Amino acid sequence: MASTIFNASSSLPATLKGLDCNTYKPTLGNLRFIASPNKKSITVPSSSSPAPKRRVLPLAKATSDVPVKTGLSDAECEAAVAAGNVPEAPPVPPTPLAPAGTPVVPSLPLSRRPRRNRRSPALRAAFQETSISPANFVYPLFIHEGEEDTPIGAMPGCYRLGWRHGLLEEVAKARDVGVNSIVLFPKVPDALKTPTGDEAYNEHGLVPRTIRLLKDKFPGIVIYTDVALDPYSSDGHDGIVREDGVIMNDETVHQLCKQAVAQARAGADVVSPSDMMDGRVGAIRDALDDAGFQHVLIMSYTAKYASSFYGPFREALDSNPRFGDKKTYQMNPANYREAMVEVHEDESEGADILLVKPGLPYLDIIRQIRDNSALPIAAYQVSGEYSMIKAGGMLKMIDEEKVMMESLLCLRRAGADIILTYFALQAARCLCGEKR
Ligand code: PBG
User: Fold this and answer.
1) Is the CB of 385 under 6 A from ligand 1?
2) In 177-248, alpha helices (H)
């Protein structure tokens, strides 16, 4: 791994002026992914690898601005100053002119002027409270049985990736820029969908097969899996649906436990129940432990809201509920306190990571959980959030890259440790100083 070292005395570049990727780079506490924004920075190699791609810029040469040395010794210089022969420094620069017509007013008697701390790029970088790095990203990837990568209409730039080829290429690209965590979402053939979603725990199914392939090719990556029945359910619900439309809780949890164990057996590092059934975290923990998977983490979708922002995802997986909605298990977007009920359950049942979903419209929930739990927090910037930013960018209504980076930074500021985002690769490239 190469580290970037800043030459503190050098001037800052113009690129730091605007609200661009550089604004979001980690400050000196986290050097790993700082692309060099600075002509006088150098990179030095250190032991670990692989290194993310970065710009390596040459050391600047002395320029004509550098004062010419006089050839006097230190002692001669000191003696000259002591004798009153003080060398000339540049004159104080004139006060810059205000435009004609600017009112002449006495200074406001302010003891505090917060703008002082924002005066220069160096000061702003020094006082930046939140940082973001590719290590914070989890990249959600859609997979299917096919050989081709099929574009997803409602999510420009996202594909249903062929599990054997396209997926591996995408993971390699992500790793190149420091994204080592992925979460898999399968598009299951209709013929394999049933009311009880049994394909979910088929050990030879698409997800377990893909996990084994990935672990073989990239042993170092962290694989998250989704635990829920909806991609496998002929009803498109996260649980088993009774005749009268009720989603059956405990029976669904039984299936989810089998699904989680099948994923763990294939090599999943983190299983992520997104179904919102009661008691599933504890039951999955027991099932994993009984099967010898004490080391597998559970990331619980703790506060998952019944949101319209999931629309593009359901198109991607063709997983729309065949009838009704998900309001008897996903949370009411109007509710804030209720998130803490879920937090207490998940904590006591042994969750390792608590997830909030969607992301940006739910920053208050992230902050509430951050302030009330010591566990790591994940935020899911969901498909609808992604597609809105993409669409706004394509229509030239917003600057896609800046809005992307700002939205991710804001999720971190609210308290998220990790972010599941379809922008993971694009944002990581941006943080590494690469443009597409
Ligand atoms: C379902 C699941 C959903 C998402 C992740 N897992 C959709 C849903 O609950 O209907 C949505 C993710 C997104 O919109 O990006 N278990």
Assistant:
1) no
2) 206-217
CA atoms within 13 A on the CB side of 9: 2
Q: Report the residue among 139, 232, 274 best suited for mutation to probe ligand 1: largest number of ligand atoms under 8 A from its CB.
A: 274
**How many angstroms separate the Cα of 10 from the Cα of each of 6, 312, 353, 371?**
8, 47, 42, 39
Q: Which residues are catalytic?
A: 304, 357
Q: Check if 383 has its Cβ closer than 6 Å to any atom of ligand 1.
A: yes
Q: Counting Cβ atoms within 10 Å, is residue 33 exposed (0-12), middle (13-18) or buried (19+)?
A: buried
**What angle (nearest 5°) sits at the alpha carbon of residue 18, between those of residues 14 and 22?**
80
* Sequence-distant (≥ 6) Cβ neighbours of residue 5 within 8 angstroms: 41, 42, 43, 44
Span 52-62, pLDDT tens digits: 444 444 444 44
Is 272 a pocket residue for ligand 1 (Cβ < 6 Å)? no
Q: Which atom of ligand 1 is nearest to the CA of 420?
A: 15
What is the rounded CA–CA span in Å between residue 216 and residue 203? 17
Ligand 1: centre distance to CA 291 (Å): 27
> Is the CA virtual torsion 362, 364, 365, 371 positive or negative?
positive
Q: Specify the residue with its C-alpha closest to ligand 1, atom 2.
A: 274
Q: Is 280 helix (H, G, I), strand (E, B) or coil?
A: helix
Collapsing DSSP states into helix, strand and coil, what is residue 138? strand
Query: What would the pLDDT profile of 42-79 be if each residue is shown by its tens digit?
Result: 333 444 444 444 444 444 444 556 667 778 999 999 99
Residues facing 144 on adjacent strands: 162
Span 18-28, average pLDDT: 50
Q: Over the stretch 152-185, which tens digit does the pLDDT of each residue have?
A: 999 999 999 999 999 999 999 999 999 999 999 9
Asked if the model's pLDDT at residue 18 lies above 70, the reply is no
Backbone angles phi, psi at 136, to 5 degrees: -85, -10
pTM, two decimal places: 0.84
